[in-house]
Every structure is written in structure tokens, then in C-alpha cells.
Fold:
Amino acid sequence: MKIAIENRQTRQKINKILLRKVTRKILSALACPDALLSILIVDDAAIQEINRDYLGKNRSTNIISFAMQEGEGSGVQPELLGDVVISAETAARDACEAKTSFESELYFLLLHGILHLLGYDHERGTSADAERMEAGEREIFALIREEFLPG
Structure:
């Protein structure tokens, strides 16, 4: 399991060691123990630029996933899941609105992004696909909460 984490923002403190442990827990729960994954933590301006340049949407968002197992070239390196990009600024705002911790929101977004890398889709899929993704989120996030978010 190879997990690359890069933090390109300065507003929120990111514990990379703990984030790596949470990522390992998610990947193990999803039966992907040999997965390769990169996580990029950015601010709103950076995620807006990525969203505009790669997805044609000129706005910030909380998370973007770039799956390497979709489209042309998929399957060449089956362990390579892709990239998850998270806006720490948006995550912090969302956590405040939801009255939860920043870490809780960050870990949930990470889980959400990894599920997208594995083909789960709540936006373009059927309602059954959305339900399947939500069930996966509930089940795995319960494990994360229990181990990494005491209290």
C-alpha cells in the first residue's frame, strides 16, 4: 500500500501520519490492501483551478477524484487507484456548518473520494448506485469514527 500525501495549504493543520492511517483503514475495509493512491490537500483557489482546468467547472468544491481505473489505459496498473484532491477550506466550512470536527469532515471526504476511485457513483449512476455508495460510506465511516474520532 503506497499512499502519497501532499499538503499545499496552510490554514488547516493536517496530521499526515494520522491521515495515512485513516487511508489504510479505508483501503483495507474496501479490500484494496495493495492500492496506490495520492492525496492532495489544497485551498479553495487551488481546487477551483483544478476543477476549471480538468472538469470545466469554474468553481471551488470540497473534493475531486481522478480515477486511474477508468477510460483508456485502465487496467495497465491495477493497484493504481488515482488521486483525491480535497479543499481544506471547504472542509473546514462544511464541518463548522455540520457542527463536527474538521478531522471528521476531512476523513469523510477522503472516504467519499476513494469510493469514487473504486467506481462508486452517486451523481451519474442510478439511485441504487447512490444507495450502494451511501451504505459503503456509513459502514466504513463507522469504523473510522470508532478508531480515529473518539468522543
The chain has a mean pLDDT of 92. The beta strands are 2-7, 36-42, 63-67, 80-87.
